[in-house]
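Project channel, design review

CF: Before we commit to the Arthrobacter wenxiniae constructs, I'd like one complete example in the thread so the newer folks can see what an input/output pair looks like. Taking VTT domain-containing protein.
RD: sounds good, go ahead.
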Amino acid sequence: MSDFALPALVGHGPAPTGLLPPWLDPVNILDNPALGFWVVVIACGIIFAETGLLVGFFLPGDSLLFTAGLLTSTGKLPVNIGVLIMLLIVCAFVGNQVGYVIGAKAGPAIFNKPDSRLFRKDHVEHAHAFFEKHGGKALVLARFVPIVRTFVPVIVGVARMNMRHFVIFNAIGAILWAGGVTLLGFILGDRFPWVQKNLDIIFILIVLLSVVPIVVELTKAFLSNRKVGKP
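CF: and here is what came back for VTT domain-containing protein:
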């Protein structure tokens, strides 16, 4: 362990970021020795709720994963990094599957009613066509975008995307997001002490980098549609 990381470990570890309210700050949630292994259970519950339950859209998924990896690297989180990553991946995967089921079950009840401004059958048809064509890529990219990742599996369920395709890309997205972001925090947390002091900046960069692929895809689609629309 780096000598430069010792002062943080002797004290209280990473300071709360200030980016989120105290009750949502992942450092406040995870850096609590009194909870022991229950901290891991809480982290898994948050990841499941954010990806599987519509009410979890406000939860700090990216920052929590990164902080969990960071605290594991410094010994603050009492769990093996491999076990932690596996648990988080499973929760992220199961969460999206639950979101899909919610959409698949609720969709017919909503869209069998007369059309309204918000709920129209043609919207479902367009969504179905979109996810059949771009579903895999969209599912994986959505994992990295806050709020969007909560609602996309439900929308996919409403659109009745092929279940086999959904399971495959759900697994890929869970591994890349839950596994990748946690591992990134683990690698950077102990080797680069400045990361612990600048978590606000790190969290913002993670979100910005996550949005870049979405912006690129939307730009490509926009330019393609313009080209098709030319006489």
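RD: helpful, thanks. The radius of gyration is 20 Å.
CF: Confidence is low (pLDDT under 50) at residues 1-12.
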